[in-house]
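Much of the work behind modern protein science is quiet bookkeeping, done one molecule at a time. The fold becomes a row of whole numbers, each drawn from a learned catalogue of backbone shapes. The protein below has been through that process, and both of its lines are reproduced in full.
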Amino acid sequence: MPRFSAQPHRLAFTLIELLIVVGVIGILSGLVIVVINPNTQFAKARDSNRKKDLALISSALEQYYADNNAYPATQSGNSVSALPLAGSPKYIQSIPADPKSGFAYCYTSVSPYQTFNLCAKLESGADQLNGATTCTPTGAGGTGDYCLTNSF
């Protein structure tokens, strides 16, 4: 007849131990998601793309100015897509659009075309630069916008 010992052999975790570990992992993952907040991170990444796009367009505008001694006139509304910069490798290969909406950025230049305003609407409240408020017909240039002007 086999003899049973008073101490059972432990080959696995008990149900209570597993439930405690799963509960702790759930609480920690919930806290990490709240702290990181992926939607905010995606919005900040799109805002970074917007700023990079405006810097690229601004560089093309400065090259245009160097060749023509004036910035391009606003041809249809306040849209960057109407500027005579696209398709010319001399200035910019293609004019970028907003990464989320796909709409063109806001551009204004008033006669005699020696200054310009270039604006994008940011999603997050961080890093807002609002140097101009003249792009309001297309929804940019107000509170929460990032606007660039020429360096003169």
The helical segments are 15-36, 38-68. Confidence is low (pLDDT under 50) at residues 136-141.
